[in-house]
Amino acid sequence: MTNNNIYFIANWKMFGSTKSVNSLNKVISYSKIKKLKAKIIYCPPYTLIKSFVNKTKNSNIEIGAQDCHVQPKYGPFTGAISSKMIKDLGGKFVIIGHSETRLENDNKKINSKIKSALDEKLNVILCIGEKLIDKKKNKTKFVLRKQLLQGLKNLKNLSKVIIAYEPVWSIGTGIIPTENDLKKNIRFIRNTLKISKKFTKSKILYGGSVNPKNIKNLMRIDNIDGFLIGGASTNEKIFIDIMKKSIN
Ligand code: PEP
Predict the structure, then answer these.
(1) Annotated catalytic, 62?
(2) Which string of DSSP letters, residue by residue, matches 26-79?
(3) Closest ligand 1 atom to the C-alpha of 210?
(4) Atom of ligand 1 nearest to the CA of 207
């Protein structure tokens, strides 16, 4: 298997300083390897979007944000950042519905945020995933279905929406789902999109404790289109190692 067209999306969360831009050097060189067709996207904090965009200008790495406001353009919303502002900085993607933001965001608000991002022609990475308690109560499918259907409600064209399946209990814990569970849940997401007549070719990623040790096994799951990577993506050597090990 190659990693052609496989997504490697780096979610930097609240990490990084103005000096962090230098830690893209090796990844930029790696991304220029002739036959590498992996799609590399960095989502740094808002403060670093512009410098990351400038730094990656002559590469095929793209930049995104980690959230946006429900209003696509401008307004009296202290502390908020809109999709238009992200686009103005050169961002092309936005993560919406990450579990670390879901405390302040219900599915309705997430749906509005997705609309705002699509209005500005940004690509959306919609995160969905069950908590440990849901898993224990056998409610994974119920949660995933609800997050998908309510998050994507009334959206007709999903060609710019990527789904990231991130079990909350897997984020930052070093624990990943079994191969069987992962296959099953990704298949369930795909079928739910199909049954609800949503875009059936949506890319579906996995996120949660991806690292150089588990990437080979994760790559064996043939219905995964890529990975959303938190902690491991902030260290360029480790991030490159993951991408290298994803190629057999
Ligand atoms: C994330 O927060 O999106 C994530 C996948 O984190 P980590 O890789 O650190 O588990």
Answers:
(1) no
(2) HHHHHHTSTT---EEEEE--HHHHHHHHHHTTTSS-EEEES---SSSS--S-TT
(3) 8
(4) 5
Q: Is residue 214 in contact with ligand 1, taking CB distance under 6 Å?
A: no
- Check pocket membership of 166 for ligand 1, CB cut-off 6 A: yes
Pocket test for ligand 1, best of 8, 125, 171, 206 (most atoms within 8 A of CB): 171
Residue 1 within any structural domain of the chain? no
| Single pTM value for the model | 0.96
C-beta of 231 in contact with ligand 1 (< 6 A)? yes
Q: Is 228 in the pocket of ligand 1 (CB under 6 A)?
A: yes
Whether 92 has a pLDDT exceeding 60, the answer reads yes
27-53 average pLDDT score: 93
CATH code for position 53:
3.20.20.70
Residue 27: CB atoms within 10 A of its CB come to 22
* pLDDT at residue 199, as a whole number: 63
For residue 121, being part of any structural domain is answered with yes
Domain extent, residue 54, equals 6-247
Which of 62, 120, 130, 166 does the annotation list as catalytic?
166
Q: For every residue of 114-145, which 3-state class applies, written as one string?
A: HHHHHHCCCEEEEEECCCHHHHHCCCHHHHHH
In a domain, 208, yes or no: yes
Question: What is the chain's percent helix, strand, coil content, to nearest 5?
Answer: 40, 15, 45
Q: Can you tell me the mean pLDDT for 178-184?
A: 96
The tally of domains found in the chain comes to 1
Going from the Cα of 54 to the center of ligand 1, the distance in angstroms, rounded, reads 25
pLDDT tens figures, 131-175 = 999 999 999 999 999 999 999 999 988 899 999 999 999 999 999
Q: According to the model, what pLDDT value does residue 70 have?
A: 97
Q: In whole numbers, what is the pLDDT of the chain averaged over residues?
A: 94
